[in-house]
Amino acid sequence: MVLCNVNQVSLAFLNSIHATADVDAQLLFEEFIDGNVNLWKEYERTGQVPPKFAANLQKLQPELDALKQIYGWNDTVSFGKLASQNCSDLILYAKYMSFTPQVSESVKLRESLPQR
Q1: pLDDT number for residue 2
Q2: Average pLDDT over residues 98-114
Q3: Domain-located, residue 97
Q4: Could you tell me which residues come within 8 angstroms of residue 24 by beta carbon, excluding any fewer than 6 positions away?
Q5: What would the 3-class secondary structure string for the chain be?
Q6: Residue 84 lies in a domain
């Protein structure tokens, strides 16, 4: 069985931007997906970019450069959309013992549409 979750960052994506270390992946999550509540509160309180945020961006610079070069990432492109799994062409097929389920009506409809 194959499951796809568009809310998860794919390992292939992290590998493509050379974010293979757990620390780098964690920083990417903190800065671009989950956010860092403590750094945000500090920014709201002082109006200044916290030094830790600047240090995190500097540490992630090679990955950010790869994002820009490979995926054309910029401030208007969602990091989450680039990083999430692509499930648009995923077809789920299941077979249990000798029972093969019928193709669903939505799959039949999709197959009948003109190809792009």
Answers
A1: 55
A2: 57
A3: no
A4: 59, 60, 63
A5: CCCCCCCCECHHHHHHCCCCCHHHHHHHHHHHHCCCHHHHHHHHHHCCCCHHHHHHHHHCHHHHHHHHHHHCCCCCCCHHHHHECCCCCCCCCCCECCECCCCCHHHHHHHHCCCC
A6: yes
Q: 45 lies in which domain range? A: 11-90
Q: Is it the case that residue 103 has pLDDT exceeding 70?
A: no
- 1-16 pLDDT, tens digit per residue, is 556 665 567 778 888 8
What letter represents residue 101's amino acid?
P
pLDDT of residue 65: 93
Q: Do 107 and 93 meet the contact criterion of CB atoms below 8 Å apart?
A: no
